[in-house]
Amino acid sequence: MLCSPILDVMPMKSVFLALLLLLSAGHVHAAETPQLPPSWTAIGITVGMPYAQAKALLMKAGWVASASDNDGDPVFAAHPEVDCGQGWDAICSAGFSRRSEAYGLVLTPTNDGNLQVQGVF
Hints:
By secondary structure, the chain is of the alpha+beta class. The protein has two domains: 1-32; 36-120, no CATH class. Helices cover 35% and strands 21% of the residues. The protein has helices spanning 5-32, 38-41, 51-60; strands at 64-65, 83-84, 92-98, 101-109, 115-120. Strands 1, 2, 3, 4 and 5 form a five-stranded antiparallel beta sheet that branches. Strand 3 and strand 4 form a beta hairpin. The longest helix is centred in the N-terminal third of the chain and has 28 residues, at 5-32. The relative contact order is 0.15.
């Protein structure tokens, strides 16, 4: 059976296109992530840090955690201000305010049952 050169190239093109889409999708996602407010980075808040540590730094600097919209028991007992969505790509969040500033932290649960700072909105 003869094999057409077009058929040999098609799988390589598909792999190349899949790789290109994967890499560009990650780049777009990273570009859309808002930077942390300067007032937060000044007190040591960083993306990737444990939420408990970030919360302690914020509260020490005079930020107040907003009440959550949870109905019933909080998802994280140690952090009743945290709201979590449901579904495959759901995220958690917690709001903080001080004087005329208000921001929300984007949080992701970790495998050990804690939360990690992913960004701000």
